């Protein structure tokens, strides 16, 4: 397993990021999709290696998988409400983690099962909200919104808190309607930059893309 730099010495000119790594994966046949091997390395290692250079600090949204993820050397953020499920809980917990540390700024969201994350993802998200620090930035690819690849602000925490705690929501699209957001249309590329590995067949497809 590749162990990443913990990123504790945060670069002030770059935002923080969190990888959603706490979900279980019954379709892959193992407890954590983050640990599925792609070319001899966990999926999560591929995401870390692509995303970490773009960020000032990188966190793992660990959910209930903290013990399985310890070896990656990143600060782990457990779900604040373990009974809740969904990516919105991971986002809420990470924003609250930053707020509790007195940090005010941007947070980039990314899933653990996307081995082809673009090297300029963070730059394009940041560029899209220049002059509008109230906005969320969300990727759209091939006509489909990709909310797990997105940019949020700690100032969004009150709205997200209400969505999670008061309304019991778990999906990112549910909270977007309550916030201003901008869409970043990503051009076609090979391999598909926002390809997710959810099944053994998709894992094989990812291997084939790497062969090319």
Detailed description of the structure:
This protein is α/β, with parallel strands linked by helices. The chain has a single domain, classed as Spore Coat Polysaccharide Biosynthesis Protein SpsA, Chain A (Alpha-Beta Complex), CATH 3.90.550.10. The chain is built from seven helices and eleven strands. The protein has a seven-stranded mixed β-sheet with strand order 7-6-1-8-10-9-11, with helices on both faces. The chain has a two-stranded antiparallel ribbon with strand order 2-3.
Strand content: 15-25%
Low-confidence sequence ranges: 1-10
What fold name goes in the CATH topology slot?
Answer: Spore Coat Polysaccharide Biosynthesis Protein SpsA, Chain A
User: Given this structure, which CATH class is correct?
Assistant: Alpha Beta
Strand segment count:
11
Compute the average pLDDT.
89
Strand order of the largest sheet: 7-6-1-8-10-9-11
Topology:
Blueprint: E1 16-20, E2 24-25, E3 30-32, E4 37-38, E5 41-42, H1 43-51, E6 57-61, H2 66-69, E7 76-77, H3 87-100, E8 106-111, H4 121-128, E9 136-141, E10 144-153, H5 157-166, H6 172-176, E11 181-186, H7 200-211
Parallel strand pairs: 1-6, 1-8, 6-7, 9-11
Antiparallel strand pairs: 2-3, 4-5, 8-10, 9-10
Helix pairs in contact: 3-5
